[in-house]
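pasting for ref. prot 1 ->
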Amino acid sequence: MNSNLYPNDPPVILGIGEILWDLLPSGKQLGGAPGNFAYHAQALGAEALVVSRVGNDALGREILDRLRGLGLRTDGITVDPSAPTGTVEVTLDAGGQPTFTIHENVAWDALAAPEQVLKEAARSSAICFGTLAQRNPVARACLRTVLKATPPEALRIFDINLRQHFWSRELVLESLALANVFKLNDDELPVVAQLLGLEGDEPNQLSQLADRFQLKAVALTKGARGSTLLIAGRMASRPGSQLTVADTVGAGDSYTATLALGLLAGLGPDQIVDRAHQVADYVCTQSGATPPMPARLREIILPRKPGR
């Protein structure tokens, strides 16, 4: 896959769906996979845009301020006149693994895409979406409109993110049909395997997914057990690292962002897995989903041009 970075401008990457406050034991943190993904993509060298919706309330205004503080654009965020900004109660177990309680009937359930968002989608190199933001028909229709506006060659990354009861077999199948890259974790693979009748061990199941849905890449993250990545029939795996974990919130999204940039840069599976682990390992050692990216990681995929 050819990158649009060399020698041109950074790739435009969209994260579309839920944006919210994760209400952690240590306090509230900006959350939602699309925003986390966009933050990490931009921290690693892309031009990123979050496409979501907040309420006309103090929490919504704080999200917009926080995004600006992170250096992200806010023109992909619309404001709902009546529904509240989304929140999620997050509890952590002894290993730092999160459990989520996601509140319903919030602003991002009425996701909207003004003309500016569709223009950005039309020049994008990658877009990432999941199942949660499709729980409401309004948001689901909007997400499909934005996906349709992306160039045919763009990466359309389905990061499944199964949460509570906000998904179905039909939704998973429809989303896989819209995608050309699939990312899931080792808790989700058995569920997907049962839904789709996949057989054999993990590598065989990833190969079946790639073949059945004509996917460019399939990534399986396995927490402390590492990850496996399949690209064009080539498979790479890496074990997990010994870490002092603060929490794992946002680590998977940072892995997905690194995957996207690695694919756009034309890297092979071994190179991408190595870099994705370096980024995700760092995020696991920090509190919250969007810690500052250290200099040693900022150019791990895409070297910055002079003046950037």
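and prot 2 ->
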Amino acid sequence: MQLSPVDIVDDISNEDFRKNYYLPMRPLVIRNLAKSWPAYEKWNWDYFKQLVGDQQVALYNNVKSDAYTPINTADDYKTFGEYIDMIKQGPAGWRIFLFNIFDHAPELIHDFTWPEHLMKGFVKKYPMLFTGGQSSITHMHFDIDLSHILHTQFAGRKRVLLFPKEEEYKLYRKPFEVLSLADFSNYYDPEKSKLDYRQFPALQKAKGYDLILNHGETLFMPAGYWHHMEYLDSGFAMSLRALQPSLSGKLNGVWNLFGMRSIDTVMKKTIPHPWYNWKKKRIFENAEKA
């Protein structure tokens, strides 16, 4: 892989952000965006446990889904308090994603400010919390609704691998899915990495970005960006999503949610093996062309 660092700024003006990152679809880390929010000092494990510790949450392990796994199927369930106790004890490869904590503790919505000075179109009903124990992994994918993301890390550190949409065939994208066939686990550690360049040679030509996101930092991830995340420490982050301003961007997101995903689900249930074989053939054909 051909990886570059992501630009990092303390603060940024609306004009600079739009000209150099939002419009050209380039990622950016903003150090101080969240530091004026009450959440920066207020949000921690004990506070969340006090507010929503009794809520049952779906947990996901580090096993990469195969061709026949239904989308977003949980691997276990615990109360949020039990989960927090587990991951505070040390490495624990379990994560929670798309947990709308604000449904259960609406007062949290007052602990941050929507950064509308940077971009418009935020989906304010769905700020989402992402939580992971040390060593947990979010495998390479892109967000199905094709929203722009501001992803703020509130505890711990997270290693992030990013690729723009145009690199997707070099990443061995599965047709009708948002996932890569390749396993990027521990990509930064030659001794532990699961990347197989012999099986996936196009990965060597994929151009992307590598970064570590620290407490209080916000990552701007443009719509359609592929991302793989590994929790270096137990931690949590919040994503604020903003719809693309163009009609085509919105329509592509709707197609992914209700068209592409529905077709894939039906085919997996009706003809799983032929469907998988067709996909695998297309994956390597597309990678060879790329």
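The helical segments are 14-22, 38-42, 45-52, 80-88, 101-104, 247-270, 272-289.
Residues 2-289 form a domain with the Jelly Rolls fold (CATH 2.60.120.650).
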